[in-house]
Design brief:
The complex is a heterodimer.
Chain A (H helix, E strand, L loop, with lengths): L2 E3 L4 E5 L4 E3 L2 E3 L5 E7 L5 E7 L5 E3 L5 E5 L4 E6 L8 E8 L7 E3 L3 E6 L1
Parallel strand pairs in A: 2-12
Antiparallel strand pairs in A: 1-4, 3-9, 5-6, 5-10, 7-8, 8-9, 10-11, 10-12
Chain B lengths: L3 E4 L2 E4 L5 E7 L5 E8 L3 E10 L2 E4 L6 E3 L9 E3 L8 E8 L9 E2 L3 E5 L1
Parallel strand pairs in B: 2-11
Antiparallel strand pairs in B: 1-3, 3-8, 4-5, 4-9, 5-6, 7-8, 9-10, 9-11
Classes of the chains: A mainly beta, B mainly beta.
């Protein structure tokens, strides 16, 4: 069965520090992978997506993610975190072999301290 | 651009009452879906639709009903509200229904069932 695991429920980083949010997936076919961000009281917004090709993908707001097939991972990174990055982050996989399904991780809450 | 519009944003119900959460999108997306978001659970798919007249169940469909009479609208009905349905509900649409396309989310509807 398809699944997405985000092992870190909550992460705290200092402003200006680097960030890495972990995501592991279980999926039998070629995955379509996404990272979304949710600011408080808002819906989810796409940060970036991976379909094929270059395994390092760039997204909005200075975020990037690297797809590693051997580790079934799609970790999100940012070199220098800003206070406005405080939010909830969700990793998701599009399950094309079953059709019509997107599977989400449980989310990682990011706190940024001055 | 309106994107995905959900109403109401907040609702309080008593156990046993029924109500409808409205969702409308103006992007001509064939795929529409409803998720519920609960702490520590991430987003769970309730129902989805791949076009007018076509709906299907997701992971947690019990207690909910949907219909899709037009491409634009995808209402979610709670038939007899229960406290376990207290949650934040998100409507989302996509130009792709094979798990390959970005999901566009509404701002959410917070429902409390007493």
């Amino acid at each position: 069965a398809q699944s997405v695991t985000q092992p870190d429920i909550h992460i705290t980083v200092s402003e200006g520090a680097s960030l890495e949010l972990r995501c592991n997936y279980s999926y039998g076919a070629t995955p379509y992978l996404f990272w979304y961000v949710q600011s408080p009281g808002q819906g989810l917004q796409l940060l970036l997506k991976y379909f094929s090709g270059d395994t390092l993908v760039q997204g909005i707001k200075g975020f990037e993610a690297e797809f590693k097939r051997s580790q079934s991972s799609f970790n999100l990174r940012k070199p220098s975190v800003h206070w406005s990055d405080a939010a909830e982050y969700f990793c998701a996989v599009g399950a094309t072999n079953t059709g019509n399904q997107f599977y989400f991780g449980t989310g990682t809450s990011l706190t940024v301290i001055p | 651009n309106a994107g995905v519009t959900q109403t109401p944003k907040f609702q309080v119900l008593k156990t046993g009452q029924s109500m409808t959460l409205q969702c409308a999108q103006d992007m001509n997306h064939e795929y529409m879906s409803w998720y519920r978001q609960d702490p520590g659970m991430g987003l769970r798919l309730i129902h989805y639709s791949v076009g007018a007249g076509i709906t299907d169940q997701g992971e947690v469909p019990n207690g909910y009903n949907v219909s899709r009479s037009t491409t634009e609208d995808f209402p979610l009905r709670l038939l007899s509200a229960a406290p376990s349905q207290t949650s934040v509900y998100f409507c989302a649409s996509s130009y792709s229904f094979w798990g390959t396309g970005e999901l566009f989310f509404g701002e959410g509807s917070r429902l409390t069932v007493l």
